[in-house]
Design goal:
mainly alpha, Arc Repressor Mutant, subunit A, 2 domains, two-stranded antiparallel sheet
Length: 99
């Protein structure tokens, strides 16, 4: 299942503001989750930072824990953000929140 564009944008926006769980997305947006499949799809989106390079949140968090303190350094360590660049807000949120 793929989220419609409006929901995908809301999920990524909430993720860039620090949401890391579906509950946090729901609390930050007015998203209406229609069924369990959509819930799982939102969770799957939240586990991935960079779709272009297929980089997970955990990989970026590890890079930050290991000293990558700028988007550029995270890009060097993980390749996240080196494609279209739309994930840079999420990367910055991870750097800022260390989570």
């Amino acid at each position: 299942m793929i989220l419609d564009n409006e929901k995908y944008i809301k999920v990524r926006g909430a993720q860039a503001q620090g949401a890391r769980t579906v509950k946090e997305v729901k609390d930050m947006t007015n998203i209406d989750i229609e069924d369990d499949d959509e819930y799982r799809e939102i969770d799957r989106v939240l586990q991935n930072v960079c779709k272009c390079q297929n980089v997970s949140v955990n990989e970026v968090v590890e890079a930050v824990k290991n000293g990558a303190d700028t988007i550029e350094r995270v890009m060097e360590e993980t390749k996240a953000g080196s494609g279209c660049g739309r994930c840079k807000g999420v990367i910055q949120s991870i750097i800022d929140n260390k989570k």
